[in-house]
Amino acid sequence: RGIPREPGAHWTEPGCQSCTCQGGRVLCDALSCSVPCSHPLPTPAGGCCPTCTGCLHEGVARAEGDVFSPSDGNCTVCVCLAGNVSCLSPECPPGSCPSPSPSDCCSCTPEKCHFRGRTYAHGAQFSLDGDDCTTCVCQGGEVECSFTPCPMLDCPQHQRHLGPGQCCSICRDPPAPAGCFLDDNGVEFPVGQIWSPGDPCELCICQADGSVSCQRTDCVETCPYPIRIPGQCCPDCSAGCTYMGRIFSNNETFPSALDPCLSCICLVR
Questions:
Q1: Which pLDDT value is given to residue 70?
Q2: Is the residue at 106 inside a domain?
Q3: pLDDT digits (tens, 9 = 90+) for 203-258
Q4: What would the 3-class secondary structure string for the chain be?
Q5: Number of domains comprising the chain
Q6: Coiled-coil intervals in this record (predicted)?
Q7: What's the whole-number mean pLDDT along residues 138-153?
C-alpha cells in the first residue's frame, strides 16, 4: 500500500485484519480478540474488540463501579468491576423475624406476643384490663405499654378538669363575671354601673362580660367668659360670666378692672 514495513513488523489494517512482514511478504489474518472479562461492552465505533471499561448486563450498559439490581433479582445487588458483574443475595433469617420486612426479600412470620394469658398478633394494639388510659402494642414478640397521649389544652391550669374515669383533662368554661374588678384601686363595680374614673369628661360602664367601656364627652358649647364649676366636665355659658377671676351673674353691671371709667355688663347669649 506504498508504506515500507520493517521485517517482523505487526500492524492492523482496516476491517480488523492483523498483518505482519515476513521475508518480504505481507501475511494478514483476522484479528483475534482476547477479552479478559465476563460482561464486556460491545466493540466501540472504529474499534475491533469489545472493551472491559464497563459492563453489558441484560442488554443494559453499566459504567465502571455501577451498583444495580437485576430485573428478576428480588433484592439481589450487583456491581460492575472491570467488565465483570458480581451479584450478592441477602441472607434471610430462618423462621420468625422481629418485624415484617418492608420488601419481599425474605419471607418470614413476625413473632406473636403472649401477654397475661392472651396471644396477640404482631402490630396489634390493646388496652390493659380495667385501665383504658394505657395502650399496649405487640412488636416482634415483645409488648410495649404507654399512657394514652392527651391533647394539648389552651386553657389555664385552674380551668382544667379531670372527670371520673377519664384519662385526659378537659377545659371547663370560666364562670360568668359578676362585675368589673379594677386592679388599680381594688373597686368592683356591678354590671351596668356607670362612673367617672377621675376625669369629669370621661364616663365608664361595666359590661355584662366583665369588661369596662369608657367614652369621653366632647364640649360643643363655647363662650369667651364661661363659668367653670368644679366636678363638671364642660364650662357653663348660661349661669353667668367669669371676668378677671370674679364671677358675675347674667345682666350684672360692674366697672372694668382695667379702666374705672368703663362699665361692663355680663350678657348670656
A1: 83
A2: no
A3: 888 888 888 889 888 887 778 888 888 878 888 888 889 888 888 988 889 988 88
A4: CCCCCCCCCEEEECCCEEEEEECCEEEEEECCCCCCCCCCECCCCCCCCCECCEEEECCEEEECCCEECCCCCCCCEEEEECCEEEEECCCCCCCEECCCCCCCCCCCEECCEEECCEEECCCCEEEECCEEEEEEEEECCEEEEEECCCCCCCCCHHHEECCCCCCCCEECCCCCCCEEECCCCCCEEECCCEECCCCCCEEEEECCCCCEEEEECCCCCCCCCCECCCCCCCCECCCEEEECCEEEECCCEEECCCCCCCEEECCCC
A5: 5
A6: none
A7: 85
